[in-house]
Amino acid sequence: MTLVKDSVMTSLESVKDPEIDTVSVIDLGMVEDVSFEDGHVSVKMLPTFMGCPALEIIQKNVEEALYKVEGVDSVEVKFINNPPWTSDRITEQGHVRLREFGIAPPPTHSDSGEWHVDCPYCGSTYTTMENIFGPTACRSILYCKGCKNPFEAMKPVSTIM
């Protein structure tokens, strides 16, 4: 049983975000709970943003990956909203992989509610917000005044606002 559970977790690490193919659902902290009993795997996941259009794709990809695990006969993937997902759930490896993709990982919230990110390309702290509304609900567009590149950043999401 431990071998199957380990294989399930390894399989989940292989499921990438459909929009950012360097980070897995594990890297993003989307997996809240995994249970395995008598060949049935149940996975509870947290959506990063309500209404994210990638949730159906993520669910399908998780199911497909888990059905490949020896000993898994049935799979249930359920998105839950409690506890809410926060950007603090992104792993350190997730931060590295976001930078590899050219997206700045989310910062932690400051007491003032303002946030700042460093450039994922050159590491410069000299960046400015170009548009809080990025290509998706979870990202913003920034500009690095050091290397002169525009880049995206994951928006910080916290339960303390």
Give a written overview of the molecule:
With 161 residues, the protein is of the alpha/beta class. The protein folds into two domains: 2-79, 2-Layer Sandwich (GMP Synthetase, Chain A, domain 3), CATH 3.30.300; 101-154, no CATH class. 22% of the residues lie in helices and 23% in strands. The protein has three helices and seven strands, in the order H-E-E-H-E-H-E-E-E-E. The protein has helices spanning 2-13, 55-67, 92-101, and strands at 31-37, 40-45, 74-79, 103-104, 127-131, 139-144, 150-154. It has a four-stranded mixed sheet with strand order 4-7-6-5. Helix 2 links the parallel strand 2 (40-45) and strand 3. The radius of gyration is 17 Å and the shape is elongated. The mean pLDDT is 90.
Q: Mind telling me the CATH superfamily name of the largest domain?
A: Fe-S cluster assembly (FSCA)
- Beta-sheet strand percentage? 15-25%
| Strand numbers in spatial order across the main sheet | 4-7-6-5
Shape: elongated
Can you count the beta strands? Answer: 7
Radius of gyration: 17 Å
Kindly, what is the distance between the CA atoms of the first and last residues, rounded to a whole number of angstroms? 41 Å
Unreliable stretches: none
Name the CATH class of the largest domain: Alpha Beta
Pattern of helices and strands: HEEHEHEEEE
How would you characterize the largest beta sheet?
Answer: 4 strands, mixed
Helix content: 10-25%
CATH architecture descriptor name of the largest domain: 2-Layer Sandwich
What is the total domain count?
Answer: 2
What name is given to the CATH topology of the largest domain? GMP Synthetase, Chain A, domain 3
Category by helix and strand content: alpha/beta
Overall pLDDT level: 90
How many helices? The count is 3
